Each structure stands twice: as structure tokens, then as C-alpha cells.
UniProtKB/TrEMBL annotation:
Coiled coil: none annotated. PANTHER family: O-METHYLTRANSFERASE RV1220C-RELATED, O-METHYLTRANSFERASE-RELATED. The keyword Transferase applies. The keyword Methyltransferase applies. This is O-methyltransferase. It comes from Kribbella sandramycini. It comes from the Bacteria. Gene3D superfamilies: Vaccinia Virus protein VP39. Keywords: Methyltransferase, S-adenosyl-L-methionine, Transferase.
Length: 229
């Protein structure tokens, strides 16, 4: 910290100018739903195994979106340790099934434990280990209510095309981590991951068959729904 910064500490109101909401309110909104022991444990596993779990605000939004569309069939690309999958399952219909895909079989073992600890019946989820684009291309057209993607950012545009094929009219596609720690809004960042995220944002915004919004919760949640014909 420079001596000037020490003499003139940052004005907390600067956060209001930057975000439209003060940091205390932001933190309150992010943690509004809270987390039980199962979710806390899954987040701890994610940290231990170097997996980036979605934030609590994004998890709450996933539960809400799944409940809003009455989701019975959901696809998740990027299982992690089960934080996002559990959020989806808790918003889905009681007879709904989550299909979750991850390249790492160990991640799926941990997610299975998370779902089991949360009391989710085994017939409510299927875990498929493999490359996402190899797996989702074999899933049924127009069968799914929601597709959630939190995997290789450079493949997001390809995931989008598959999601549009998989979703029924009125279904929702969601992408996590879209702001990439504030890199996406900053034109100075031109690395491949950030560029791929900008390409995805542009593709969603310019698709006339989609109604979309970029939610600033957690690290950014891009959501879009297929228009009803």
C-alpha cells in the first residue's frame, strides 16, 4: 500500500458507484439463501481438489430457474464436486433427473457423495464421465428443460449450439463464470478464455430466438430462454 493510500483510505461508497449496490448489501444478497452442511462440505472438497465451485448467489439462482421452468430433465456440463448439481436438483421437480457430465471421474465420485449426503435418491441423477461434446451430442433433441454449463470456456459456443438442440421451447440455458473475475468487461484482457467468453456473450445476444440476461451474481451467470413459437 502506498503512503498516499494509507493517508486517504478508500471510500466505501466507491463500491456503490462501480456496482450500483454497496458491498455490504452485495454480500448480504449473495448469502441470502445460506448453505447447509452438505453444501459447505462440497465447497470444501472443491477447494481441496482445485475445482472452482459456483458462488452461493449463483447456486440460489440455479435452484430458482429450475423451479421456475418446472424442470424434470436437466443437463449439467461440468459436475465439479456437486455444488451446482445439488442446487439444480433442489429446484427441480421431485421426479426430475439430472444428467451431469465431467471429464474427471474423481469429480463425479465426489459429487455422488454430495448428492447422497443430501438425501438425493440415486435414480434422480446420472453421472457420465467423458468429454462433454462427445456425450451431449448423443442426448435427445428437445427433451430437456434446462442446460447448465460450467466447463471449458473455449468450448462454450459449441455447448450453446448443443444446448439449443437439447432444449424444449421455453427451456433455459445457463453459463457460469461469465465475468471471469472482471476480465471480460476489461478490453485490455485478450487471452483465449476471455475472448471465448466474449464470443459466447455476442452469440447469445444476437440470437433472435433467445431472450437473455447477464446476471451479475457471483462471477456472472449468463441466462437465456428459447422463445415459445
Amino acid at each position: 500500500m502506498s503512503s498516499a493510500a494509507a493517508e486517504h483510505p478508500a471510500d466505501p461508497r466507491e463500491g456503490i458507484i462501480a456496482t450500483g449496490i454497496d458491498p455490504t448489501s452485495w454480500a448480504y444478497a449473495e448469502d441470502y439463501i445460506g448453505a447447509d452442511e452438505v453444501v459447505t462440505g462440497a465447497r470444501a472438497l472443491a477447494a481441496d481438489f482445485g475445482v472452482t465451485a459456483i458462488g452461493p448467489g449463483a447456486a440460489a439462482a440455479l435452484s430458482l430457474l429450475a423451479a421456475t421452468v418446472g424442470a424434470k430433465a436437466v443437463v449439467e456440463v461440468g459436475t465439479g464436486t456437486g455444488v451446482s448439481g445439488l442446487a439444480l436438483l433442489r429446484g427441480m421437480r421431485a421426479d426430475g433427473t439430472l444428467t451431469t457430465v465431467d471429464l474427471d471421474a474423481e469429480n463425479q465420485r465426489l459429487a455422488r457423495q454430495t448428492f447422497s449426503d443430501a438425501g438425493i435418491a440415486p435414480n434422480r441423477f446420472r453421472l457420465i464421465a467423458g468429454a462433454a461434446l462427445d456425450v451431449v451430442t448423443r442426448l435427445t433433441d428437445g427433451h430437456y428443460d434446462l442446460v447448465f454449463c460450467d466447463a471449458d470456456r473455449r468450448e462454450n459456443t459449441a455447448y450453446l449450439q448443443e444446448a439449443l438442440r437439447l432444449l424444449r421451447p421455453g427451456g433455459i440455458v445457463v453459463f457460469a463464470g461469465i465475468l471471469a473475475g472482471a476480465r471480460v468487461p476489461d478490453p485490455a484482457h485478450r487471452d483465449p478464455d476471455t475472448t471465448a467468453l466474449r464470443d459466447l456473450l455476442r452469440a447469445v445476444r444476437e440470437d433472435d430466438d433467445l431472450v437473455s440476461a447477464l446476471l451479475p451474481t457471483s462471477d456472472g451467470l449468463l441466462t437465456a430462454t428459447k422463445r415459445l413459437s
